[in-house]
Specification:
6 helices, single chain, two-stranded antiparallel sheet, alpha+beta, 307 residues, 12-stranded antiparallel β-sheet, Porin
């Protein structure tokens, strides 16, 4: 069986994976001058699925992916993907001899259709999931957290220094276009209208896009708690939250045409580490994927600073 997904299929003019080469085009921006962290973790799935198909799997499907960023991932640079067999498989994205993303991917081999169950969610998250599922049918209005962030920068005369072209939050064509707003209980909520070409298979929403969307919301829930403080840290203290470790459990196979919400919760902060979780739901509150993240507050490298 030959593996094909959104990341590698030849009909995708901006495909990210070509054989063992991984390259993130400019539209897949995350932090300034770097690739989107959630998408970098999502990119680990393609080499693992390809290896599973080459090893005889008839219906390979990602059950779980977890990735750790050792450094912000470069844009428009050819990275080498290395796969180590096992259960789960270990996958690395390398810039020369330097590993920039490493993680594990568990692949199951069974026929599935959009909406079918892959596995139950982790039991220790059930209380959070019950509460977050109650937000699925919200219709929040008002400014998004990105708009609030821009408003704070404008009030300080810094609007020309701040832009949000991130693949997750941008309004540009073919971006994720997440519009996170803060609920009454402090969690983030956004409706996610997926692009029709974000496909891994007919009718099936791309695993990599789900991973990216959950990561983006996990970062914004940290900044949404104290937007003015986050702006000051970004501009004066030269610090920024970036993806450290991002793990996603896939509970059901997501359909491309469901009515999705991403709901995100701040869990705690320990020094430079922020712990969060994000859930992909449909409007009925059905859980499709659950992500847990550890974000890291770093000193901004010179090349990533706003000018």
């Amino acid at each position: 069986m030959t593996h094909q997904c959104f990341l590698c299929i030849s009909s995708n003019a901006e495909r990210i994976v070509d054989g063992s080469i991984v390259e993130f085009g400019e539209r897949f921006l995350g932090p300034p001058a770097r690739a989107h962290g959630g998408l970098a973790v999502g990119a680990l799935t393609c080499p693992a699925l390809k290896r599973a198909a080459e090893s005889g799997a008839a219906y390979p499907m990602v059950e779980y992916v977890s990735g750790r960023l050792s450094a912000p991932v470069p844009l428009t640079k050819r990275l080498n993907a290395r796969v180590h067999d096992g259960d789960p498989m270990q996958v690395e994205l390398c810039d020369g001899e330097n590993v920039v993303v490493s993680g594990s991917v568990r692949v199951v081999d069974r026929p599935v259709t959009p909406g079918s169950v892959i596995k139950p969610p982790p039991e220790e998250l059930n209380d959070h999931l019950d509460q977050l599922s109650q937000l699925a049918d919200l219709e929040l209005k008002g400014p998004t957290v990105v708009q609030q962030y821009l408003q704070f920068s404008k009030a300080r005369g810094l609007e020309k220094q701040i832009d949000v072209p991130c693949f997750g939050c941008s309004e540009k064509s073919h971006a994720l276009k997440l519009k996170n707003r803060v609920s009454d209980q402090g969690d983030l909520w956004t409706r996610w209208v997926t692009e029709p070409h974000f496909l891994d298979a007919p009718g099936q929403l791309a695993t990599s896009m789900v991973t990216a969307a959950l990561d983006c919301s996990n970062l914004w829930v940290l900044m949404a708690r104290e937007p003015e403080l986050s702006l000051r840290m970004r501009l004066e203290e030269k610090k920024i939250w970036i993806t450290g470790t991002h793990s996603v459990n896939f509970i059901r196979v997501p359909s491309i045409d469901d009515d999705y919400r991403v709901v995100t919760r701040f869990l705690r902060r320990e020094g430079r580490k922020g712990f969060t979780m994000a859930v992909l739901l449909n409007r009925k509150g059905t859980v499709f994927a659950v992500a847990e993240a550890i974000s890291i507050l770093i000193d901004v490298p010179q090349e990533m600073q706003f000018t």
